[in-house]
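Narrative of accomplishments. A recurring question from our advisory board has been how the design workflow behaves on a single, concrete structure rather than in aggregate. To address it, we present the structure tokens for one chain from the evaluation set, followed by the sequence designed for it. No filtering or post-editing was applied between the two.
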């Protein structure tokens, strides 16, 4: 078969494939490139019309096609004044599909790539809305005992709220987001991390409406994170300090009720830890050192059960029982 005949056969096959592509596809010949172009791949005449076309597809529920139109915008109109609107639209499309994390990241690109955009505040609201959605989902899952990865939505909420804080630091919206980051950690039983985030509310947003909640949350973090008397009692002491601070600053807050009981529980732990130290020295027959700790328990924590035990030892010492061993 000659080369000419082969080329002619190739043209016929290409023509057949072209016709099989479907009557709905409009192909036009572009003399400049010497190629056929599918009109479906051409953009709208202007950047604004391109964005509107993508938005129209989104409203019709044609999300994949809408995304393709936003990609087409980037190919033809990326340097236009509508570029931030096109990027924002990507976030909206992802939200409509329920891809909230992807939506938040797309919204973030609006601020990252177009810091002077008029959509700045709207982006913040959208991200906050997404953070709240993840938090609500986390609360719903926490109520289901056997659900796998119950606390994962809180982790995603932390990620989104952190975007809000970074995008708009030291503003009221950021103060609430900062508090909710702490709340998410607390719900995940990450008490040390939660305490750090609550402390940031108190330090960075001291004039906000979230100081009382953060102050209470800080006290609860130290309370929940406190260890048994056999271990270091720094967190118990911090819990007492945080409880006293909260009660002092917000005496009318109804949450002060019940804090006294938690405070006494922390004092009992500290007293019991010192009692264990006293017994440690006693077992090693270092009675002078033991006496110092027993006396400290009685003097500093007189209303605790540990103080009763310490006083019994001191009374016996006076009566000569341990003294005879010294």
């Amino acid at each position: 078969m000659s080369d000419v005949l082969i080329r002619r056969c190739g043209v016929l096959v290409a023509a057949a494939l072209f016709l099989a592509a479907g009557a709905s596809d409009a192909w036009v010949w572009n003399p400049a490139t010497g190629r056929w172009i599918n009109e479906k791949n051409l953009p709208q005449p202007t950047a604004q019309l391109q964005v509107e076309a993508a938005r129209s597809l989104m409203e019709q529920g044609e999300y994949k096609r809408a995304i393709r139109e936003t990609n087409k915008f980037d190919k033809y109109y990326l340097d236009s004044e509508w570029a931030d609107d096109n990027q924002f639209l990507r976030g909206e499309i992802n939200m409509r599909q329920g891809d909230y994390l992807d939506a938040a990241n797309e919204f973030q690109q609006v601020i990252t790539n177009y810091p002077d955009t008029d959509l700045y505040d709207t982006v913040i609201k959208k991200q906050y809305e997404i953070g709240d959605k993840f938090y609500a989902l986390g609360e719903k899952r926490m109520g289901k005992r056997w659900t796998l990865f119950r606390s994962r939505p809180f982790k995603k909420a932390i990620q989104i709220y952190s975007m809000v804080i970074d995008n708009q630091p030291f503003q009221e919206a950021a103060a609430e987001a900062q508090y909710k980051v702490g709340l998410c950690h607390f719900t995940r039983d990450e008490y040390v991390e939660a305490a750090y985030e609550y402390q940031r509310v108190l330090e960075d947003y001291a004039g906000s409406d979230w100081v009382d909640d953060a102050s209470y949350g800080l006290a609860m973090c130290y309370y929940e994170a406190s260890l048994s008397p056999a271990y270091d009692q720094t967190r118990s002491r911090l819990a007492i300090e945080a409880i006293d601070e909260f009660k002092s600053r917000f005496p009318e807050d109804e949450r002060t009720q019940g804090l006294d009981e938690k405070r006494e529980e922390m004092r009992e732990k500290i007293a019991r830890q010192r009692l264990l130290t006293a017994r440690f020295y006693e077992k090693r027959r270092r009675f002078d050192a033991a006496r110092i700790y027993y006396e400290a328990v009685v003097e500093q924590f007189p209303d605790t059960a540990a103080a009763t035990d310490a006083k019994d030892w001191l009374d016996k010492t006076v009566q000569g029982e341990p003294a005879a061993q010294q």
